[in-house]
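hiii so um. not sure if this is the right channel but i have a protein structure encoded as tokens and i wanna go backwards to a sequence. like what aa goes where. can anyone help
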């Protein structure tokens, strides 16, 4: 069982003794421990090491943190297939968040009585089903930082810049990017053919992305494997999903930003498309979705952003 720093294990021992005195089973103790440990692992990571420092705002912040946590089993991340057809880490279920909240509460009830302190749970907001996990986005400045590492005329720089721009400009899935061929770009009209399990679709690319593709293809023509139909080449030939993933990881390290995977760029593209006024129906086609569910979701996230920007512009509080 994971050990915690400082006096936290002493507090746990005292709490556990109280549970034993009240006849609580070992199973109950174990269940409480499963909430106690992750809470304090998070709390200590943000500089909170004493129960006396925990108020309702800290509990609420922990609940918000759980919205961003991935589900794990036997110390391994659990994956699921989302509506875009991608395998993505599964987030903690709402029921799991509620259980952790409920099973941490007895410790602070004990602590408040034992030390005559306020119980932070009395004013906290319990997790609920109506708080969907936030859509993971990439800051546009971080994408600019990635591109700033690809400024030479070297083969790898030109290729990587084109890949990054394609991912952000079209929202293409990783598998669709890997499957791209040199024949799939209609150069004169800047149209790109994407092929996936859900079928084939043709999407436009911006002039800037078109320029990046054109520059890459000119140096690609001199590559030893230039006869390959695969769009993206490495030293040994066509790049696969692992190659594209390593490409992004390397650029993130060079740019000094947190790791950005292709799927997060797809999320960002969809959000930005709706935020700039793109319609739900057009987004469905461009993304290759057969359901309106995901388009609705990005419409809500874009509406939230619009509302926040409008509120800042109006700034009612400044009128007082």
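sure thing!! here u go:
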């Amino acid at each position: 069982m994971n050990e915690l720093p400082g006096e936290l294990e002493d507090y746990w021992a005292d709490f556990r003794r109280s549970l034993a005195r009240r006849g609580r089973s070992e199973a109950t103790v174990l269940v409480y421990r499963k909430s106690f440990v992750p809470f304090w692992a998070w709390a200590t990571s943000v500089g909170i090491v004493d129960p006396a420092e925990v108020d309702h705002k800290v509990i609420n912040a922990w609940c918000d943190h759980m919205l961003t946590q991935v589900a794990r089993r036997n110390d391994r991340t659990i994956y699921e297939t989302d509506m875009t057809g991608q395998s993505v880490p599964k987030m903690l279920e709402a029921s799991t968040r509620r259980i952790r909240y409920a099973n941490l509460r007895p410790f602070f009830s004990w602590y408040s009585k034992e030390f005559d302190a306020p119980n932070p749970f009395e004013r906290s907001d319990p997790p609920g089903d109506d708080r969907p996990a936030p859509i993971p986005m990439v800051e546009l400045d971080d994408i600019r930082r990635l591109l700033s590492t690809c400024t030479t005329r070297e083969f790898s720089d030109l290729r990587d810049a084109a890949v990054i721009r394609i991912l952000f400009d079209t929202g293409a899935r990783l598998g669709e990017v890997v499957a791209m061929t040199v024949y799939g770009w209609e150069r004169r009209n800047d149209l790109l053919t994407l092929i996936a399990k859900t079928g084939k679709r043709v999407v436009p690319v911006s002039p800037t992305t078109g320029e990046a593709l054109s520059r890459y293809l000119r140096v690609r023509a001199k590559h030893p494997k230039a006869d390959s139909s695969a769009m993206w080449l490495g030293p040994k030939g066509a790049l696969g999903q692992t190659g594209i993933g390593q490409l992004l990881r390397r650029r993130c390290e060079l740019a000094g930003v947190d790791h950005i995977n292709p799927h997060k760029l797809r999320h960002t593209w969809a959000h930005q498309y709706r935020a700039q006024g793109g319609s739900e129906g057009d987004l469905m086609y461009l993304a290759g979705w057969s359901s309106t569910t995901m388009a609705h979701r990005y419409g809500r996230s874009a509406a939230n952003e619009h509302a926040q920007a409008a509120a800042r512009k109006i700034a009612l509080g400044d009128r007082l």
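oh and Strands lie at 72-73, 76-77, 79-81, 87-89, 185-186, 191-196, 199-204, 233-234, 237-238.
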